Amino acid sequence: MSIPGSAAAFDAAAGEVVDLKALQAETDIAAPIAELDRDLVGLAPVKQRIREIAAFLLVARAREKVGLVAGPPTLHMAFTGNPGTGKTTVALRMAGILHRLGYVRKGHLVSVTRDDLVGQYIGHTAPKTKDVLKRAMGGVLFIDEAYYLHRPENEKDYGQEAIEILLQVMENQREDLVVILAGYRDRMESFFASNPGFRSRIAHHIDFPDYSDEELLAITETLAAQSEYRLSPAAREAMIAYIPRRRQQPGFANARSIRNALDRARLRQAMRLCAGNGVASREVLQTIEAEDIRASRVFTTAIN
Amino acid sequence: MRVTQGAFSFLPDLTEAQIAAQIEYCLRREWAVSVEFTDDPHPRNTYWEMWGMPMFDLRDAAGVMAEVRACREAHPQTYVRVNAFDSTRGWETVRLSFLVQRPTDEPGFRLERTEAQGRTIRYAVRAYSVDQPSGRRYGADARKAPAERR
Questions:
Q1: Which of A137, A243, B53, B96 lies 20 to 30 Å from A271 when distance is taken between CA atoms?
Q2: What is the pTM of this model?
Q3: What percent of chain A has pLDDT over 90?
C-alpha cells in the first residue's frame, strides 16, 4: 500500500519539473505588483501580503501542472484600518491583480454597503443580497463598513439574514467570487467576535497602518501630479508644516484629509489667480503656492 | 416527441459548460438574462412563469447558472429556458432563448379537427400533457409547493 506523500511516491513524481520563473513571466505576475509599488505610497504590510498571495497562486498553478491537488484557495479578505488608509483603493486594485493572476474570471469590483444588501421588510433581504452576489460573480465583492451588517441591539434585524447568505456563498462558491470586508479595526474586531463564521471563512486579515508624515507628503505630491498640479518649493515646506498640525485636529482621515486639503488649496489658488492681474501662464496655472496652503484653518486655530 | 423550441433545440441537449458559454456570450453583449419555466409546451404559449426577476448588470455566467440549477431543482419535470433580452434602442426584444431542461417523457401533440360551416375544417394543436391540470403534468413531482421552493 502506498501512502500519498510517502518517500516512494515523492521520488516517483519528483521527475517532473516546473519552471516557476517561466510560469511567472507567462502569467505576468510582476507587472501588477510593480504597479502597486509605484502607485501606492507606504502600506508595506499590505504589499507584502499581496506578494505572498501572488506567489501562492503561482505555486498553486505549478502544482496543478504536475498533477498535485489544487483545490481553489480561499481568498476572502478583511481589510482593517483607520479612515483614509487606502482600503478601498487597494480593494479596487486587488480585483485587477486577482484577474491578472487568473484567480477571478472577470476582474470587476462591486462595492456595496449595508443598504445594498439588507432589505427593508421581511423577504426583501434574500433577493437583494443574492442579486448583489450574482452581480459580483467573476469578480470581487467589496463590503465597506461590514460591521453595520450586524446590529446586536436588534435581534429582529434583517442583517443577520444577509450575513447567512453571504457566508453560504463564500463557502460554496469560492471559485466564483472573492469577498473583501473592510472597516475600522476595533469595530471589525467586535463584528468578527459576534460572527465567528466570518472569521474562519476569511483567510487573509490585512491591517492597514496609518501613514507617516513623510508618506503623506509623498501622497500630496502624487495626488497633485495626478491632476496636473505641482507644489512650489515654499508650498512643499508649508505642506510639511501642515501635516502634523492636521493630524492633531479632530477628524483626521489620513490620505483623505490630504486630498481634501489639496482640493481646498486648489480653490484658493483659483481665487488668487482671479483676483490677480488677469494674466496666467501655463506655469502659474499649474503651481500651488505656499499662501494657498498657509491660508488653511489648521494654521490659525490653536492646538489644544 | 421532442419539443423543438428556441435556439439549439435541434441539437442534442446542451451540456452545463455549453449553457454557461452561451450565457457568457449574452452577458458580454450586455443582454439581461432571465430564467423561465412552464409545463405547457404549446408553441404559442408565450407566457412562461418567471423564475425570479431578469438579471441585470451581471458580468459572469456563474450567477445565472446558480439560478438555472435552483429552478431545475424546484421544478425537475418542466421545460426551463434561458432568455436574453437586448434593451438597445431599436432592438428592445429577446435576442436569444433556449431550453436548458425538458421533462424526461415528452408525449407530444395531437391534431384536432373540427368541422365548421360548410364542411370547413378547423385545426387545433393540443399537447397531450395539458390533459392533466397544471402541476400534475409530466409526473407527480412536476411542481413542488411554493413553500418548498427556496
A1: A243
A2: 0.81
A3: 37
